[in-house]
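Researcher: Here's the sequence for the chain we discussed earlier.
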Amino acid sequence: MAADTKRSKGRAARRPGKPQAHTLGFSVHAEDRPVLDELVDYFGDGNRSAYLRATYRVMKSIMLAEQLRDLQSYGQQRTAELGIEPADVPDRIREFLKGESSA
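Model: Thanks. This is the structure I predict for it:
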């Protein structure tokens, strides 16, 4: 009976309702390892997985900022092509949205 309750050392305990983590491998150049170790110590309290999770938020915010910059640049280019003054954009958007909601 005791053998039935033992878990293998390599398997994580299953927690109902909590997604299971997956181990992923990646390589780091030898010259980058000291920097990685320093960042892991600082941001992840020595835990590489915690460090990687902490970087998600930062990298996601950088990605969103870049996407917003690209969209803003596109919008400025299009308004210039159409001869729309930047000050007129909010009113044009309101007009457009009113037309869409009443349709």
